Amino acid sequence: MENPFKQINQPLKEVPAELKDKVMHDIAMAKLIMDLAELFSYNLSYIIESVTKSRKK
Q: Which residues of the chain register pLDDT less than 70?
């Protein structure tokens, strides 16, 4: 088994453009999904809070 730490000082290899584009697209989609989930979860909690406050009155 080779020592993986010997490869640390080696120059980096170029990544194929297709793979780089796919990874960047996947990251963008994940960020979009996270932003949408945050938006809906925040609004949902605000609605529940406002409904419970109005029922107490």
A: 56-57
Count CA within 13 A, CB hemisphere, residue 16.
3
Local structure of residue 16 (DSSP, 8 states): P
Q: What is the pLDDT of residues 21-37, one digit of tens each?
A: 999 999 999 999 999 88
Question: Counting every residue, how long is the chain?
Answer: 57
Please give the model's pTM, rounded to 2 decimal places.
0.54
Instruction: Tokens 């009155």: give the residue.
Output: 57
Q: What three-state secondary structure class fits 25? A: helix
Domain range summary for the chain, segments of one domain joined by +: 14-56
